[in-house]
TrEMBL record:
Organism: Grus japonensis
Superkingdom as given in the UniProt entry: Eukaryota
Family matches, as CDD domains: HMG-box_TCF7-like (cd21996)
Stated name of the protein: Transcription factor 7-like 1
Bias type Basic and acidic residues, positions: 28-45, 68-82
SUPFAM superfamilies in the record: HMG-box (SSF47095)
InterPro entries assigned to the protein according to its UniProt record, in alphabetical order: Catenin-bd_sf (IPR027397), CTNNB1-bd_N (IPR013558), HMG_box_dom (IPR009071), HMG_box_dom_sf (IPR036910), TCF/LEF (IPR024940)
UniProt biased composition (Low complexity): 458-477, 506-532
Region called Disordered, residue ranges: 1-82, 181-223, 302-328, 401-485, 506-533
Length: 579
DNA sequence: TGGCCTTTGAAGCTT
DNA sequence: AAGCTTCAAAGGCCA
């Protein structure tokens, strides 16, 4: 199978349309997606229209629809050779120029500390702009200077409060290295949800050799943990800097697990070692002794409600099992695509809205999620896939089963009761709160910027769908991807009633983007359709990457610049030209 | 103080 | 195999 091919060669005979598709994705990343948030709306509209037209013609290049001034002038064809791309990247960095960022404030950056620059323990941006922000289409990687030298077992308080998205190669390497490494990745921009990927099956344990770049580098740690790796956006968006994962009190050898993991994985990958060669971790610890951020100290999260369900069931007494379980750190599930999306976009929505309740925010995010283009969603699916991959690499023995049934027993009971009640009640008597409660009719979040971005970004148009090259190659799993708008029809109805204006208004505001409008309405009121499916990207070959234009990798000279870019930077995973 | 709410997706569990 | 359940994040709300 292609995935087992040597890195970078995981595709054979990629259809041209796939490449074109890839290009389209890039186009959107840098085009509509970026401009939608803060850019000129009219330009965006035009761009979208042009893109749609291009799709219709099958060209997909979208080169003619480029309406962004910041856009790299070079035609993508000029980067068919990785070195060309890299040269361009270097040139741009030297020029100090960077491109207007897309609406995604998160992942796109690889934060590389300048050697010798002081590391700000609290994660705040260095006044001196000590960091070099290298745009990465991947979770933020931030390696505090000297981080790799620190003994995480005695971390400084700085780490405890570090809100800087961390992660990066432990090796000192050229800033472009990450980009280069991507070229070896089997990454497919339109990658399907992880479990759909034919490349790896964490469960069956037949993963392809992991590539460092595939290891999602962000695993925020909870406060009080020895080390912390907050959300990538945490350094700029405190709300999102909340710890996601904590680390067991055992102490680590490296304050940045993911970072170290990258390093180890890099070695593994470079030597083509199979992940199986990595000794299984003990109690959530990485073989290298590096804890994973998904580990939550049992102290922090102690829910010894059930006897051990470890696969290796034994005859130990319940008490013993319970004790062992208490000792066992709680390893959280890796975040799925939507969770990643929420983490990234929550702050943005909160900032735009008057709402603060997560329930309401989540509803909005849920709708926006559906309004995202398939390409954009694909980025998150890919992130999630990598997340799971890293997770499985770190915790080969971990299973979602480990956390199953250990949380909120009351809730389950309540749900059960509710279900029984629902069966007896009419639809109107659903016990769940109507969504309207969280999404007031006054559209408190009718923020033009992001909303437009989401809506406009959505190319979920018939033409777009038809233009999807991967469609024919969609796997069963891909087709099984959630198409739904919401799992609760009644809630959806509520949303439709009370929020249609919210979405349609946005769509209407971009009249030229009729596709967006239709998409929105479709998402809300129509049965799930192909349009709302995640991109089937398993078939997107890496060769497509070879033809992909370089995503603008740029050095950001200052925190202010970083912020500026971050505010407009779209999430994009594809950055790597094949080498 | 801790569960609820809300979202989607992954994965385990149940039938 | 299909359907159901749980968990993952987030933070205000409420008992």
């Amino acid at each position: 199978m292609p995935q087992l091919e040597p890195a970078g060669g995981d595709d054979l005979g990629a259809p041209d349309e796939l490449i074109a598709f890839q290009d389209e994705g890039e186009e959107q990343d840098k085009g509509a997606g970026r401009g939608s948030a803060h850019g000129d709306l009219d330009e965006l509209k035009s761009s979208l229209v042009s893109e749609t037209e291009n799709r219709g013609t099958g060209t997909g290049s979208g080169s003619g629809s480029d309406s962004e001034a910041e856009r790299p002038p070079q035609p993508r064809e000029s980067f068919q050779k990785p070195r060309d791309y890299l040269a361009e990247v270097v040139r741009r960095q030297q020029d100090g120029g960077f491109f207007k960022g897309p609406p995604y404030p998160g992942y796109p950056f690889l934060m590389l500390p300048e050697l010798g620059s002081p590391y700000l323990a609290n994660g705040a941006l260095s006044p001196g702009g000590a960091r070099t922000y290298l745009q990465m289409k991947w979770p933020l990687l931030d390696v505090p200077a000297g981080a790799t030298l620190k003994d995480s077992r005695s971390p400084s308080p700085a780490h405890l409060s570090n809100k800087v998205p961390v992660v990066q190669h432990a090796h000192h390497m050229h800033p472009l290295t990450p980009l280069i490494t991507y070229s070896n990745d089997h990454f497919s921009p339109g990658s399907p949800p992880g479990h759909l990927s034919p490349e790896i099956d964490p469960k069956t344990g037949i993963p392809r050799p992991p590539h460092p770049s595939e290891l999602p580098p962000y695993y925020p740690l909870s406060p009080g943990a020895v080390g912390q790796i907050p959300h990538p956006l945490g350094w700029l968006v405190p709300q999102q800097g909340q710890p996601v994962y904590s680390i067991p009190p055992g102490g680590f050898r490296h304050p940045y697990p993911a970072l170290a993991m990258n390093a180890s994985m890099s070695s593994l990958m470079s030597s083509r070692f199979s992940p199986h060669m990595v000794p299984p971790p003990t109690h959530g610890l990485h073989p290298s002794g590096i804890p994973h951020p998904t580990i939550v100290s049992p102290i922090v999260k102690q829910e010894p409600t059930q006897p051990s369900v470890s696969p290796g069931g034994n005859s130990k007494s319940p008490v013993t099992v319970k004790k062992e379980e208490e000792k066992k750190p709680h390893i959280k599930k890796p975040l799925n695509a939507f969770m990643l999306y929420m983490k990234e976009m929550r702050a943005k929505v909160v900032a735009e809205c008057t709402l603060k309740e997560s329930a309401a925010i989540n509803q909005i995010l849920g709708r926006r999620w559906h309004s995202l283009s398939r390409e954009e969603q694909a980025k998150y699916y890919e992130l999630a896939r990598k997340e799971r991959q890293l997770h499985s690499q770190l915790y080969p023995t971990w299973s979602a089963r480990d956390n199953y049934g250990k949380k909120k027993k009351r809730k389950r009971e309540k749900l059960a009761q509710q279900q029984s009640h629902d069966t007896e009640s009419s639809l109107a008597s659903k016990s769940k709160k109507p969504c309207v409660q969280y999404l007031p009719a006054e559209k408190p979040c009718d923020s033009p910027a992001s909303s437009h971005g989401s809506m406009l970004d959505s190319p979920a148009t018939p033409s777009a769908a038809l233009a999807s090259p991967a469609a024919p190659a969609a796997t069963h799993s891909e087709q099984a991807q959630p198409l739904s708008l919401t799992t609760k029809p009644e809630a959806r109805a509520q949303l439709t009633m009370h929020s249609a204006a919210f979405l349609s208004g946005k769509a209407a505001s971009s009249s030229s983007s009729s596709s967006s409008s239709s998409s929105s309405s479709s998402s809300l009121g129509s049965p799930p359709s192909l349009l709302s499916r995640p991109i089937p990207f398993t078939s997107v070959p890496s060769t497509a990457l070879l033809s992909s234009p370089p995503s603008f990798a740029a050095a950001i000279p200052s925190p202010q610049a970083a912020l500026a870019v971050l505010q407009t930077q779209p999430l994009s995973l594809v950055t790597k030209p094949a080498d």
